[in-house]
Task: structure prediction
Amino acid sequence: EWLAAILKSPETQICVIHNAGERIGSLRVSMVPEVHIIIGSQYRNLGYGTEVVKQIVEMLHDSRIIARIKPSNKASIRMFQKAGFEISKKSRKEIIMVWTKKHHSG
Result:
């Protein structure tokens, strides 16, 4: 039910991530904008996620972008940090990471 609502929402875009013609993951961006990324297990720790997040940040042209991550997902936390996101808020349920233009402009 949750996924069906996300897929139908005009405020959400879902992109498939390809490398050399092979599907390696997906990216979901909402109008907040909020970024969610899934990389296939065999493609993790190869830099694909970081590169895709950096590219989407450039494409969005927003001054603030959010990512919500489970505290146990250390790899995703590192990936978003490598892409320029900073931890904004921590709880037992989630870590909110934020990319802001003012911290990354010339």
Helices lie at 2-8, 48-60, 74-82. DSSP finds three helices and six strands in the chain. The chain has a mean pLDDT of 87.
